[in-house]
Design brief:
Layout lengths: L5 H10 L19 H26 L2 H6 L6 H23 L8 E2 L6 H23 L5 H24 L15 H9 L2 E3 L24 E2 L5 E3 L2 H7 L10 E6 L2 E6 L1 E2 L7 E3 L14 E8 L13 E11 L8
Parallel strand pairs: 3-10
Antiparallel strand pairs: 1-2, 4-8, 5-6, 5-9, 7-8, 9-10
Helix pairs in contact: 2-4, 2-5, 4-6, 5-6
Bound molecules: 2-acetamido-2-deoxy-beta-D-glucopyranose (NAG) (2 copies).
The site of one 2-acetamido-2-deoxy-beta-D-glucopyranose has 5 residues, from strand 6.
Length: 328
């Protein structure tokens, strides 16, 4: 077994009552202003987005389009089922919130055909899982926690199904990846073109966007380089760093966080680059599956990554483990 070192390490750290996950400041994982109502509205915002995405996809692309793109029956029927789930999540959450519920925003999705729709579906389902997982610890009312968990497991089923349809591992890591509110909000903001007028703004903010230069799919832990287009230039002009500030690419995968010092690329492009996605150190699994990355001034030793020291994000990469572990 490839990760046989992992369980003893985990057992040892539990025995020592050491924190398994130290990646965020306490504030990032504290209940937001408004508590559970805000969290339910955050969930509702994501469910509206997913519902709209599947509604458009089912209208834009036919069963024949999905078959031609390599997604044979009953794929289209299962997409309808996913749409039904998202629609039901929306009506459930909106019903529970009553007059406090936010309304549907307006959205724009970059998918242009059946294949790009399925690729984006995989990203959105993964983000949904990470959003519910990150929010879970902040829910105060235990009965809401059961509801959120009940939705989370269905989102993860969607994610596995879509990943398998893309010939990606349906369960790429023994742990899923929690993201905090602002990290998820940053990802959702890429698709939201406007909030409903009159709705109270959710108390979250999007980080400056992070652009990953397209190079390969999937990336491989322990070997693939990554370039962050104009990241240095953008952070300098926003006054977030000075020319001497070290900037780290911080990867999140499962319960692991990996810090890699970036450097400028040759020439004057204003890009930042790392030579390889880390494979993980002793006691860590390699980043695998849908991996998230932010740029931060935290080095992971003296300072942990937090919303306060994040300078851009969130980027998403599909990462294969080092070596050639078979997917199926
Ligand atoms: C559906 O098609 C419309 C019109 O071309 C486009 O604006 C929209 O982004 C598409 N939606 C999805 C999810 O592909
Ligand atoms: C953090 O400390 C470890 C152990 O001293 C070292 O190997 C690693 O390079 C340091 N990381 C950073 C980002 O400075």
């Amino acid at each position: 077994m490839r990760y046989s070192t992992f369980l003893p390490v985990l057992a040892a750290s539990l025995a020592a009552a050491a924190p398994i996950e130290e990646r965020a400041t306490v504030e990032d994982y504290n209940p937001p202003p408004g508590g559970d109502v805000t969290i339910l509205n955050y969930a509702l915002t994501l469910e509206y987005l997913e519902r709209k995405f599947y509604m458009e996809g089912l209208a834009n692309y036919t069963q024949a389009d999905f078959i031609a793109a390599g997604f044979p029956d009953p794929f289209y029927d299962n997409l309808k089922e996913i749409y039904f789930d998202e629609e039901t999540h929306v009506s459930f959450l909106a019903g529970a919130l009553g007059a406090a519920a936010v309304h549907e925003a307006t959205y724009s999705f970059p998918s242009t055909d059946a294949a790009s729709f399925v690729a984006l579906s995989s990203v959105l389902e993964g983000v949904g899982v990470s959003a519910y997982l990150g929010a879970a610890a902040e829910i105060v009312d235990k009965s809401y926690l059961t509801v959120a968990g009940s939705i989370l497991t269905v989102e993860s089923r969607h994610s596995s199904y879509i990943r398998a349809a893309l010939k990606e591992s349906p369960f790429p890591k023994p742990f899923d990846t929690p993201l905090d509110f602002n990290q998820v909000f940053s990802l959702a903001a890429e698709f939201i073109t406007g909030f409903a007028p009159g709705d109270p703004a959710l108390p979250f903010m999007a980080f400056p966007p992070l652009t990953i230069q397209a190079s390969q799919y999937p990336y491989t832990a322990g070997s693939s380089p990554v370039t962050f287009t104009h990241a240095y230039k953008n952070a300098m002009s926003a006054g977030l760093i000075t020319s001497s500030t070290p900037v780290y690419a911080v990867f999140f995968s499962g319960l692991d966080t990996y810090y890699v010092l970036t450097r400028m690329t040759a020439g004057n492009s204003g890009d930042l680059k790392i030579d390889m996605i880390p494979a993980g150190m002793a006691g860590m699994l390699p980043p695998t599956g849908q991996v998230y990355v932010v740029l931060s001034t935290a080095d992971g030793n003296s300072t942990k990554v937090s919303d306060e020291n994040t300078i851009s994000g969130v980027g998403i990469l599909e990462v294969s483990p080092p070596g050639d572990r078979n997917i199926f």
